[in-house]
Amino acid sequence: MPTGVAMRDVREQLFDAAERVLLRDGPSALTSRAVTTEAGCAKGVLHRHFADFDAFLAEFVLDRVHRMDAETAALRDAAGTGTVVGNLSEALRAVYASVAVAIVPLITFRDELRARLRRTWPAGVPVLTEAVEMIASYLAAERDLGRIAADAEVDLLAPTLVGAGHLLFADRTAPPPDDEAVRRTVTGVVAAVLR
């Protein structure tokens, strides 16, 4: 590896490299060597910017969680437009087209990563918890607009939708479900509260 070459946005380059490795090869392949090789830098670069590999992974996960802020705003802004089922289907597809599906097993299998994340994320699994909050916020807005029932329990519907979506998208080696499968699942969860 060449040395003495300055890297711009080192953290972002390393996070992007980690995402590529995670999506391509899965959580078991995500090592500091794999990340730095993917980023085209020396292994020491990662350790100059992070205390250890689990510290890097914790910051990587949180960075990817914060990227959902734009999706959350877009879904909330969609309230009252299109169809509820269409908006929710699109939101689930966006969540699971991201690195979210690969992050869940990464967190599940790395005890030290989970422990570090608990310091700043006390409950739930990052990314999935954020997805639940995003969908609950949207459903509450649709309830306020009268497009779903006034007594709809959005705090129950949102995790049900995220869980059902996770089951649809969980197999990263299979092709993603088609639009009709996603819409059918969303409809099955929310049909009773649609107005």
Structure description:
The protein has helices at 10-25, 32-39, 43-49, 53-66, 69-78, 84-97, 100-109, 111-120, 128-144, 154-169, 179-190. It has 195 residues and is mainly α. Helix 4 packs across helix 8, helix 6 (84-97) runs antiparallel to helix 9 (128-144) and helix 6 (84-97) crosses helix 10.
Radius of gyration: 19 Å
Distance between the termini: 61 Å
Q: How would you spell out the order of helices and strands? A: HHHHHHHHHHH
Largest sheet: none
Hey, roughly how much beta strand do the residues contain?
A: under 5%
The total count of helices amounts to 11
**Which ranges are low-confidence, i.e. pLDDT below 50, for 5 or more consecutive residues?**
1-5
Overall mean pLDDT: 88
Helical content band: 55-70%
Shape verdict:
elongated
Write the layout of secondary structure elements.
Layout: H1 10-25, H2 32-39, H3 43-49, H4 53-66, H5 69-78, H6 84-97, H7 100-109, H8 111-120, H9 128-144, H10 154-169, H11 179-190
Helix pairs in contact: 1-2, 4-8, 5-9, 6-9, 6-10, 6-11, 9-10, 10-11
Keywords summarizing the entry:
single chain, about 200 residues, mainly alpha, 11 helices, about 70% helix, disordered N terminus
